[in-house]
Amino acid sequence: MCTKYFGGVPTVHPAPNFNAADDAEILRGAMDGLGTDEDMIIEILTQRSNQQRQAISEHFKNVLERDLIDDIKGELGGDFEKVMVALLTPHYEYLCKELKNAMNGAGTNESTLVEIICSKANEEIDKINECYERLYERPLVEHVCSETSGNLGRFLTLILTKSRNDCNDIDDGEARAKAEELYAGGEGQLGTEESVFYKVLAHESFAQLRRIFEEYKEISGNTIEQALKHELSGDYLEALLAVVECVQSPAIFFARKLHDSMEGMGTDDDTLIRIIVSRSEIDLGTIKQEFEKMYDKTLESCIENDASGDYKRALLALVH
User: Fold this and answer.
1) Is the Cβ–Cβ distance between 108 and 148 less than 8 Å?
2) Which residues, including other chains, have CB under 8 Å from residue 251's CB and lie 6 or more apart?
3) I want to staple 102 with a disulfide (CB 3.0 to 4.6 A). Which of 112, 123, 304, 312 is the partner?
4) Counting beta carbons within 10 angstroms of the beta carbon of residue 107, is it exposed (0 to 12), middle (13 to 18) or buried (19 or more)?
5) What is this structure's pTM?
6) What phi and psi, each to the nearest 5 degrees, are found at residue 230?
7) Is 235:111 a contact under the CB 8 Å cutoff?
8) Residues 51-86: pLDDT tens digits?
9) Helices marked H in 221-268 — which ranges?
10) pLDDT in tens, 170-226
């Protein structure tokens, strides 16, 4: 029997005594007439689960004969609007739209592809694949193949075709053998056999990879992260490191991504919004705990410094 791994503390929970009709009427009132009650919009949409928000949207459509997202877009603007629209979009549709946006136009945002695809288990990949093809009438793997190349393209393709072993049982002997393969393909020789890395990191279960990485440290004396950074570079390295971090702790991976989005001049608002919204019902509470451990400051304090106005208040409402 396979052992499944769970974990993570959300910050957004289903509201008790939820009434979609009441919430819909309050939201309609907040956007009707002169002026907009942004406080009420934040209070309702950040304190409901995604499923509850979909029920509110259904009431808008079926009873009020209005589109809630269109109304939100008509009343709000900028990054505040992006947060509210993200909250009103079904989870996997939102991730698919972010993937599509990353591949639109000239150039591809490989970092977004890596963040979304490399952090997911097979079950989530399955839902993303189905949703993407339904929304855009094109297989996601085909679109990713057309926008990426080389080892990165091959690695993402392997993940999207669900080649990862679903069983989380650990085979110590096989873990040792795979660790030796990784060592032989990198540190153990002159040059690097790059295909060894993507084959192992895309195929083995997260539980088995944890054991492989432990064995690798025993064989090499270096961590797998140190080895990858020594042997590889660029987007391919980022993708492999994303899997390594998610194997060890998804919360640490997303805490680092949040920190990077706010570090230095300017803010990567799309990444900041995407992670806070998409992880709020999964493990954002754990992410913010890891964030404080890693950077000796709170996620809330960083948002306070990097965002402003209703946008800031909406993010903080999701994080608290």
Assistant:
1) yes
2) 8, 283, 286, 287, 289, 290
3) 112
4) exposed
5) 0.94
6) -75, -35
7) yes
8) 999 999 999 999 999 999 999 999 999 999 999 999
9) 224-231, 234-248, 250-262
10) 999 999 999 999 999 999 988 889 999 999 999 999 999 999 999 999 999 999 999
pLDDT tens by residue, 241-254: 999 999 999 999 99
**Backbone torsions φ then ψ of 279, nearest 5 degrees:** -100, -5
Q: What is the DSSP code string of 148-207?
A: --HHHHHHHHHHHTT-S-------HHHHHHHHHHHHHHTTTSSS--HHHHHHHHHHS-HH
Q: Does residue 5 surpass a pLDDT of 80?
A: no
Q: How far apart are the first and last CA of the chain?
A: 38
Question: How many C-beta neighbours within 10 Å does residue 172 have?
Answer: 11
207-232 exposure pattern, b = at least 16 Cβ within 10 A, e = fewer: bbbbbbbebbeeebebebeebbeebb
